[in-house]
Amino acid sequence: MANQADIADTVKAIQADLTTIVRGEIELAKAELVPQAKSVGIGAGLLGGAGYFAVNGVSLLFLGLSALVGYFFANSLGWQPLLAAAVGLGIVAVVMFVIAGILALIGKNKVSVKGPEATVAEGQRSVEAVQQALERGVSEAEAEAAARKQARKSAPSLTSAGNPGPGYTAPGN
Description:
The protein is an all-alpha fold. It is built from three helices and no strands.
């Protein structure tokens, strides 16, 4: 009976240790992922800024720059004002989309997130430690079982006449 109580206590201790390990791993994952979440937030803000500037830039600069380019084509080259305005709009649009693309690439690089590498590594070390502890526990339990079996074999037994054998002392003496 005492052996079963020892096993129950050992199992409870293992459960408590595993609970502590899991809680520690969760805290490590939080500590590792919070800075990355902040970086993702900054990247998302940059992407939003890129969109904002792309839309506003297209609206405002299309008008102003296309008027200037159209004026140049109309006066310098003798183009019709409508054709000059269309070419001006096209040039300004290309410039604005290049700026928006650059901002989007910068924002995209900020949004990329790495996995919780330290947490995974720590989890693997914890699993290995638990496996080693279990292997040690199994080997110790097998050794103790073998020792008890040997002790039972070598313990003096009653002789065929019902009398204890030589060297036998009654329990409690």
